[in-house]
Amino acid sequence: MPKLASAEAPSPFRTRDERVRDREEKREAVLRAAVRMFNARGYHATSLDDVAASLGVSKPTIYHYLGNKEQVLVECVNRGLEMLRDAADATRAQPGKGLDRLRYFLLLYAQINMDDFGRCVIRTNEEVLSMDSATRFRARKREIDLFVRDLIGEGVADGSIAPVDVRFASFALAGALNWPARWHAPDGPMTPAQVADSLIAILIGGLAPRA
Amino acid sequence: MPKLASAEAPSPFRTRDERVRDREEKREAVLRAAVRMFNARGYHATSLDDVAASLGVSKPTIYHYLGNKEQVLVECVNRGLEMLRDAADATRAQPGKGLDRLRYFLLLYAQINMDDFGRCVIRTNEEVLSMDSATRFRARKREIDLFVRDLIGEGVADGSIAPVDVRFASFALAGALNWPARWHAPDGPMTPAQVADSLIAILIGGLAPRA
DNA sequence: TAATCAATATACCCGTGAGTATAGAAAATA
DNA sequence: TATTTTCTATACTCACGGGTATATTGATTA
Description:
Two copies of one chain form a homodimer. The longest helix of chain A is centred in the last third of the chain and has 28 residues, at about 130-160. Chain A starts with 15 loop residues before the first helix and ends in a 6-residue tail after the last helix. The radius of gyration of chain A is 21 Å and the shape is elongated. Helices cover about 70% and strands about 0% of the residues of chain A. Chain A has helices at about 15-40, 50-55, 60-65, 70-90, 100-110, 115-125, 130-160, 165-180, 180-185, 190-205. Chain A is mainly alpha-helical. Chains A and B meet through helix 8, helix 9 and helix 10 of A and helix 8, helix 9 and helix 10 of B. The structure holds a DNA duplex.
């Protein structure tokens, strides 16, 4: 009889696992609240008091879940970088010619840049991080950049991409697809997917008319 | 005889005009020093004490020439915006088809974005400005954006540009050509003109191989 | 039941940095 | 020469915000 009660009504008594999950959830809530404010007002202009207030708690609560302000930012950035890494992995498993695979990745890349955590990756400049964090940050962004260059190189090799300068092509793509992190309104009429599609079409096709 | 001395040796006595020019020069020096530090470390992370120290003067000296910290930033941004407006004017006087005129402007645009003051326009986000300044800032950036859209529309109309979505094309171009403000090293091996050329070639030609 | 631990709050400390009050030197003007 | 103006420094005020010391409560474990 006591065993049966488990799935019925939500018991106010939490098991150890539930407590661990609660903790994770709260940590996550702090990060979500923080990243929104960082994106909206900038890191320096956002105080942890503000973040705490927006969650209806006090500052020490944040310190209970995260070490200090920089770590809050670092965790947010890491969430975004993780999404990018996943996108790269998904792309590696993708068939097709270089251009197709590149397009596949760019579509994900652009959309991530319109996500709260992805935006944060773009909007965070290394100067605000400690040297140590900045180094790691740079390294992980470089990983992504190199991945894009590989895809472009692959496309050039198999003829699906014009013989462009790989380095500059990756800069041009990154710039164009990072920019929405600054102008795209999450609650605007265009979905991230639509924005991504439109931008990528232009980048692939170019401005000059096709013969 | 006294008249003749004017152009000979630089007199330690300054005329009224010279004094006005001295003042301008100092003001300008403050802005140059400030914009460099803003670009390097970010606006919030730069104190006016630091700026003053880098010029070998004290903070009140800065306040003597400029009202307050925000005004320092606003003036820097205005310098950049002025360069952009000049570039637009020069382009208006330019002959040729839409694509040629667009290319002409983009070349200037991209280079300005690698200049100290131009960088500052890109790197300054409105959130750090007072509502009033932010509004003016947004308006002047919008001017530039509309100008680019006009050029693209012109090119589409005269057939020199493919029938792209004008709005997204301008976003894609802006993003790609703003990005160097964040990665281009002024003392690196590539000159701004070379960077601009390379990026623009890719944007106009697109990634897909030409038939 | 006692002792411990997790979670949260209140109230504080303290450094930084924007902005100012004041004074003094040098030059310009009367 | 006396007076005012320009330029600059020293030395301050004050608010903000990161971070912490400490107390409280409720649940967990011994």
